[in-house]
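Predict both folds.
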Amino acid sequence: MLNYKSSLFNKIKNEEVRVNHHEEDAVDRVAKELFTRMPASLSNRPIVFVCIGTDRSTGDSLGPLIGTLLQEKTPQSFHIYGTLANPIHALNLSEKLAEIKAKHINPFIIGIDACLGRLKSVGVIQIGSGPVKPGSGVNKDLPAVGDIHITGIVNVSGFMEYFVLQNTRLHLVMEMAKTIADGIYHTSKYYEPKYSFSKLKWTMDHHNQEQTN
């Protein structure tokens, strides 16, 4: 499970971290990196995940697949928007963001989206500070989303991006979605606003000790 080190909390949070989805510890790495970028438990800011994409394009379905997996796991500490049943995409993104900000007071938003990249980076999950910029890979001008972001490189950029997204392997997208959703779910089990930092750290250390016994 999670093995947090105190040094993680002193790292430069602006650095974008890259995790290959098939690494043995990919889920734990996603969970750790996400946790270090989230606000302190006592801040009481609602944690909102905005999973962007559409099920009409295989490559662009990463976001709503993650939202659906998280909805099934029902992490009580987090609010999930964007699923296969109710996707958030180019046509309704601005409206959904306005709804989220009206419903939640000072939300901390994590934007999730698929993206294209270099061939050797396909399958890589990126976690970093600042918003995700949906549609930038296909020349769409859409609102930036999130205080931090999680993106998954699902295919190669540079030529006929719409065609590339539509012809991305579903197996790859599903495996990446599972890794990201599992990482978020692991984080949710330890992220409870009612806990102080010291109690949270004790809980994780105690759990890790049990795992090694």
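Second protein follows, with its predicted structure tokens after the sequence.
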Amino acid sequence: MIELEKHIREQRLLLDSDSPREGHEKRFMQKLERQHDNRIKPRHILQIAASVAIILASAFVIISREKSGGKVARAEVPEKIMEANIYYTSQINDRVEQINDFSFENEEEKTVLLHELKEHDIYQQQLISDLKASPEDDRILNALIRHYQIKLEVMDQIIYQLNQYRTETSKIQDNESV
């Protein structure tokens, strides 16, 4: 900063004058003439061609990775979750059958309950599609497995409560008959 102030003080007379330095007009006119020269220079053509080539090559690489990435994802996902998916799906289907076997006083309650359980499948499908999109992400795989576990826990709790209700109603009926 001190050097800048020193330079300004030394050049004060030149900087304070209203007229530009000698030869300014000539240099300005030369720059204007160069700007108005509308010829396309070979150097500019090469620069444009190189830029287009780089863009096309990048697009080709990205598209080919996307296509091969999709194939890899489809191949890897079933291997990673096939066993867990089969296990949890069979467990969930067993719980649904147990719930269906219960006799409800109101069939509408049964329908609502089963419908709410089906709504959890939307989240499951979203997790599976996310896993297909990025099969290397263990967080998605863990979230899917955790979703299955939570759904089983909820269904076990429902079955437990239904069994309790059945037991209590049977006791009440037994007491009434006695």
